[in-house]
Amino acid sequence: MIKVVYCLRRKADMSLEEFQKYWLKTHAKFGKNIEGVKRYVQVHTITGELQEMLAAGHPAGKNEPFDGVAELWFEESDLRELPGKPGGLAALQDEANFIDFERSVIFLAKEHVIVQK
Predict the structure, then answer these.
(1) Is there a domain that residue 115 lies in?
(2) Which of 72, 76, 79, 116 has the smallest set of CB atoms within 10 Å of its CB?
(3) What is the span of the domain harbouring residue 32?
């Protein structure tokens, strides 16, 4: 399996709450309809005291956090066939409603599980 990892930042005119609500309640429907997707997970950023504590004690904590991460799993053959398919195109078009493309990052990955309890 190949995982699409999409590190997201919201559009400038949206609050984190608005972004996460739109992503979960509206955009998730598009993600469910992407051809060949085997698993789709939304990872929503948590703010507050615990996040501040983590950031303060870590060198990367000075960086601007992402607002969330989308993870989509595909078989390689399904991923190769994805460009131009209606479900993927609809999802991409809807992303323009809430994602700042200039400040977001997308890449392919393979998982290496180190601990699973």
Answers:
(1) no
(2) 116
(3) 2-109
